[in-house]
Amino acid sequence: MQFWILFLLALAVSSIGFKKFVWFISLGYGFSIAALGVALVVMFWDALTPPTALICALFVAYGLRLGLFLLHRERSSKDYNRVMRTQVNDGSGLSLPVCVLIWATCALLYACEVSPVLFRLAAGGATGPSTVAGALVMVAGIALESVADLQKSAQKRRDPHRFCDKGLFSFVRRPNYLGEVLCWTGVFVSGATALSGLAQWAAALFGYVGIVYVMFGGARRLEIRQNRNYGADPAYQAYVRATPILIPFVPLYSVERFTWLKG
To answer: Most CB atoms closer than 10 Å: which of 10, 81, 102, 158?
Structure first.
C-alpha cells in the first residue's frame, strides 16, 4: 500500500509535464523525489534511524536542488532554451494516450528509485553497515553532481562556445551524470539487505537499472550534440579520445553507436 501512495504522489507532482512535455523528466523528476522524501518521513516517522533519516533528507535536498537548478537554467539560459527548442522533443507530435503512458512510466520509475528505502522502513527500519555505506555513497554522488553543475555553469559563463573540459570534466565527460549514478547506487545499497520477495526486488531493480539506463541515454544524446557542435575542433577530438564518457578509468569513450540507448 505504501508503495502505491508514493506512486500516486509522484503522479501528482510530475503531472506538470502536461504543461510542458520535458517537465515530466526534469522539473517533475526533481520535485517528485523531494516530495517522496517528505512522504517517507511522514509515513515512517517512528521507524526512522539516523541513517534512514539522513537518506530521506537527502531525497528532499537532492530533489529541490535539481528542480530549482533546472528551473533557474530554463529561465536564465538562452543557449539552453535554444537547444530545448531545436534539439529536444517537445511532445507536440505525441497523442494523449502516449503522453499518459510516459507520465505513468516516469512516476513509476521515481517511486521505484526510492523503494529500497521504503522497503527498509516498512520492515521496521533496522539499519546496519549497508545502510550507512549507502547513505555515504549517496552523499558523495550528490556532492559530485552539484560541483559538476557549478563547474559547468562557470566554464560556460567564461566561454559559452567551448566544450567543458576543466575540473571534474577532465576526469570524465559527464561527471554530473556519474554523480547521479552514484547517488542511486547508494540508495539501492542502503536498502538491498531489507528487500524481500520478487515484487520488492523487481521494484528496486527497475528503479536502479532504469535511472542508470537514463543516464547513459542522456550521455549518448549529449555526445551526439557535442559531436555536431565541436566535432571539427582538434582539441575536442583529443579530449574525447582521452576522457571516458561516464565512468572514470573505464575505457568507454563513446556510446553514440549504441542506438538502443534513449534519453
So the answer is: 10
